[in-house]
Write a structure and sequence with these properties.
It is a single chain. Helix 7 runs parallel beside helix 8, helix 9 runs parallel beside helix 10 and helix 10 packs parallel to helix 11. By secondary structure, this protein is α+β, with helices and mostly antiparallel strands. It folds into three domains: 152 residues, Galactose-binding domain-like (Jelly Rolls, Sandwich); 98 residues, Immunoglobulin-like, CATH 2.60.40.10; 304 residues, TIM Barrel, CATH 3.20.20.80. The radius of gyration is 25 Å and the shape is globular. The chain is built from eleven helices and 32 strands. Belongs to the glycosyl hydrolase 2 family. It is found in: Lysosome.
Length: 657
């Protein structure tokens, strides 16, 4: 976590990150990461309790941001350390208050929640295992329970957890005081990267003034962004399940691998049930395959009359621990589908699939990146209204709750790591590389069983023309393929086709371009020539299918101009139509998808080119359609009618919601 201070008077460790090193000097050993990361579920042997609501919150406003560390705030209730405020969880903390210093705060903040555990969680011989799990917290987290450190985690978009059984089982009155120290500082070696710039000109800036410099175009929201959950398992439990599927017209094979922790299982049985609850296949043992006759395949939205078909795989384990016979049960949704990439096609279940979708952000008024169920459901209703069959998790993994709905609704996902803004040469070094490999392990471990996830994306718009990018991306992509051989791997580029050093290693070329916006602004007439050349150059060089992974224009809602001028709704419409004309020619050859940037307007850092954020959404930040949304809707439904196996009565006016 140490970094040199960009813009400082001399070399040294970044003061904001010194507290991390100090913590390591006087705290107990850090808990190792779990082997498995099964999503917490209520089952006959497991209970879960969400800890959402109001938490106590305190930002460390001391000059060095280190008072909380030096005074060990975790050793007593946070309210005893000084003033605290209420903070909703899950939510970003930036926009909750009227405090301008909190909106752009960089450094340590502290959260705390006191809960009482049910007595049954602490009883028995052996007693149940009690686990504390965070869906995500941005960016660097250290967690204590009753003053005892239980876990440390780096990264803002993936879950982490700790077995806290030994800490809580001796607690008076089953009290569980959870304290979280959270630091949103980004360095050249984090994902995403960033740097702290110290302003040393005392004639222009106050003492110790600094800013966080980032190379990505969305606001660096921070906080506990996803649900915090306490859950239980038996002392011997199912730790991980891995599923892959193959299929033909009449038979499917579901290969599985189950790992158990705490004891050798006396018995391990599996039952696969269809949506009516009928058992269609059974198995036993930790490794094997289930044979399913006449399977219902998992199909994308608009490719089948019953998209997103999910079976339920029930795994049941019995194990002897001491004198007790313990049983653990876990149920995993399973979609049967295959993915295959040729030199010019992307095949799902052996049929050509064309990505007509969007890029998104986890972003909304007030709650920032905090998980919000009404917003999630609204977004999926808009996606289906639009006729979108896919999206990319730009530019970080999205919440498991969102991914669950993708599985259930048949929305295809390109699952992207937080590797955005990798621009500096030092961000391609071994330290950054090792962290990137660890992040891909966490991402694959979380999402490996999801049928909606058809491709991994390891980065977005890196400086892939730099010499070290070749080794860097060769290594990250090979590592990801070793973790999951069943899916293709890509990264999203905006580099010149002749200079990109990472492109040789991807399975699908994903290209971002903003013709007539960032390049030749205002000149729509250059799009046909330049976009055609873009596709032809990439395909001639690599002979791989291509997705236009970003394109678009800002439009201010209600701003109109005819003839179209930049920032008007008409210009956004006109740009889309120019791109679409070229897409229609090239999708007959090797272009396999188009993802608009962006689904909705979103917040960014303040700047002279950003008026309350990025306005490239086809919907406003409040999810109201701009004129471009109707252009895209008509197009996507037309494409769906051309390629669907459904009756041609589907129109953009059909009621699917």
């Amino acid at each position: 976590m140490a970094a040199r201070a960009s813009g400082s008077a001399g070399p040294g460790l970044c003061p904001l990150l010194l507290p991390v090193l100090l913590l390591l000097l006087f705290l107990p050993g850090l808990a190792a990461g779990p082997a498995g990361m099964l999503q917490p579920r209520d089952t006959p042997s497991r209970e879960r309790r969400e800890l959402g609501g109001l938490w106590s919150f305190r930002a460390d406003l001391s000059p060095g941001r280190d008072a909380g560390v030096a005074q060990r705030w975790y050793r007593r209730p946070l309210r005893q350390t000084g003033p605290v405020i209420d903070m909703p969880v899950p939510a970003s903390f930036n926009d909750i208050t009227q405090d301008r210093s909190l909106e752009n705060y960089i450094g340590w903040v502290w959260y705390e929640k006191e809960v009482l555990l049910p007595p049954r969680w602490l009883q028995g011989d052996p007693a149940p295992r009690v686990v504390l799990r965070f869906g995500s917290a941005h960016y660097y987290s250290i967690v204590w329970v009753n003053g005892v450190q239980v876990v440390e985690h780096e990264g803002g978009h993936l879950p982490f957890e700790a077995d806290i059984s030994s800490v809580v089982q001796g607690s008076p009155g089953a009290l569980c005081r959870i304290t979280v120290a959270l630091n949103n500082t980004l360095t050249p070696h984090t994902l995403p990267p960033g740097s702290i710039q110290y302003m040393t000109d005392k004639s222009r800036y106050p003492k110790n003034y600094f800013v966080q410099d980032i190379k990505f175009d969305f606001f660096n929201y921070a906080g506990i962004h996803r649900p915090v959950v306490l859950y239980t398992t038996p002392a011997a439990y199912i730790d991980d399940i891995t599923v892959t599927t193959t299929s033909s017209d009449s038979v499917a094979l579901v290969q599985y691998q189950v790992s158990v922790v705490g004891s050798t299982a006396n018995s391990l049985s599996l039952s696969l049930r269809d949506q009516e609850g009928k058992v269609v296949a059974t198995g036993d043992g930790p490794v094997g395959e289930l044979k399913v006759l006449n399977p219902n395949l998992w199909w994308p939205y608009l490719m089948h009359e019953n998209p997103g078909y999910l079976y339920s795989l029930e795994v049941k384990m019995q194990a002897q621990v001491g004198g007790a016979l313990l049983e653990d049960v876990y149920t995993l949704p399973v979609g049967i589908r295959t993915v295959h990439v040729t030199s010019s096609q992307f095949l799902i279940n052996g049929r050509p699939f064309y990505f007509h979708g969007v890029n998104k952000h986890e972003d909304a008024d007030i709650r920032g990146k905090g998980l919000d169920w009404p917003l999630i459901v609204k977004d999926f209703n808009l996606l289906r209204w639009l006729g979108a069959n896919s999206f990319r998790t730009s530019h970080y993994p999205y919440a498991e709750e969102i991914m669950d709905l993708c599985d259930a609704y048949g929305i295809v996902v390109i699952d992207e790591s937080p590797g955005v803004g990798i621009k500096l040469p030092e961000s391609f070094g071994n330290r950054s590389l090792q962290h990137h490999l660890a992040v891909m392990e966490e991402l694959v471990r979380r999402d490996k069983n999801r049928p909606s996830v058809v491709m991994w994306s390891v980065a977005n718009e890196p400086a892939s023309e730099l010499p070290p990018a070749a080794h860097y991306f060769k290594t990250v992509i090979a590592h990801t393929k070793a973790l999951d051989p069943s899916r293709p791997v890509t990264f999203v580029t905006d580099a010149n086709y002749a200079l990109d050093r990472g492109a040789p290693y991807v399975d699908v070329i994903c290209v971002n371009s903003y013709l007539s916006w960032y390049h030749d602004p205002g000149h729509l007439e250059v799009i046909p020539l330049q976009l055609t050349a873009q596709f032809e150059n990439w395909y001639k060089t690599y002979q791989k299918p291509i997705i236009q992974s970003e394109y678009g224009a800002d439009s201010v809602p209600g701003l109109h101009s005819d003839p179209p001028m930049m920032f008007s709704e008409e210009y956004q419409q006109a740009m889309l139509r120019e791109y679409h004309a070229v897409f229609d020619k090239k999708r007959k050859e090797y272009v396999i998808g188009e993802l608009i940037w962006n689904f909705a307007d979103f917040m960014t850092n303040q700047g002279t080119t950003r008026v309350l954020g990025n306005k490239k959404g086809i919907f406003t930040r409040q999810r109201q359609p701009k004129a471009a949304a109707f252009v895209l809707r008509d197009r996507y439904w037309r494409i769906a009618n051309e390629s669907s196996c459904l009756p041609p009565v589907i129109t953009s006016h059909s009621l699917f919601l």
